[in-house]
Predict the 3D structure of the following.
Amino acid sequence: MAPVLQIEDLTVSLKRPGDTVPVLEKLSFSVEAGKTIALVGESGCGKSMTALAIMGLMPEGFAISSGRILLEGRDVAHMPNDDLRQLRGNRMSMIFQEPMTALNPVYTVGDQICEALQLHQGLDRPAARERAIAMLRAVQIPAPERRIDVYPHQMSGGMRQRVMIAMALACRPRLLIADEPTTALDVTVQAQIFDLLKILQQDIGTAIVLITHDLSAVADIADDVAVLYAGRSIEQGPSGAILAAPSHPYTRGLIASVPHLRLGQAAAAQPVALAEIPGMVPGLGKRGVLCGFAPRCNHASGRCADTPPPAQAVTPDHHVACWHPQGAMA
């Protein structure tokens, strides 16, 4: 089956006076219909920039330097803006981190869902309203016939996030990008949102790119995972395999910092001190071509400081870019 989304050697750069700084470097991954890939890593690793590049919504000064972004075989990386506007909200949609800033406060939630349906699906106003009510019901908003006429500020954070999901899925997109979709929600609502995404994905068959720092969500919803660090993919493969047997020291550090995912330890085990990764992600212009994680890594050697790490196979579908991986194939 051909993937819905295929990223091939994507490089995104920031143009500054007299300088061009890479933000993403040779990023590659794919996701098929009905599947989810999670992009994980600390803030500043390039997760959200990847999403914005796919959607064609990068801030001013950022541009795709090389590579391809294939949506159902079409390269959206080099597509005219008019064509991209026809795809956004239709064939591909995005759930943003904070619904209070993503939703327009002066329009009802129904107006905002109907707008996409009228624009992309050609529905008249009554038909669009009927579909919008059905979508609000699908995302489990009580009394959707009444809630359709309320404004975002009249809803709770969890309800607003459900409206964002309803809006994103109203046109039954082939690709959904969920950028930290449960930020600032309590754990019970987070679980409800992820369960809802799984149910709707099964119904629609949408491919999902989940951007998150929550490894619990990865374990629950993702089929595959790509670990990003300093704009590069450093480990990639099936989520179960990576969470059970991480190979890159950075991935191991991320997992060790989550109590109930600590490298296979049971959640009911006796309390242990949380692990900590010292240092910070290098800023733009300070990454170089070598291993960006080496200054923070207790496995680093001289080779890490003078030669870019190679990509190695842990298993045929699990790869890691590191000079000192755990469990790589010979």
Summary: The longest helix spans residues 187-204. The mean pLDDT is 89.
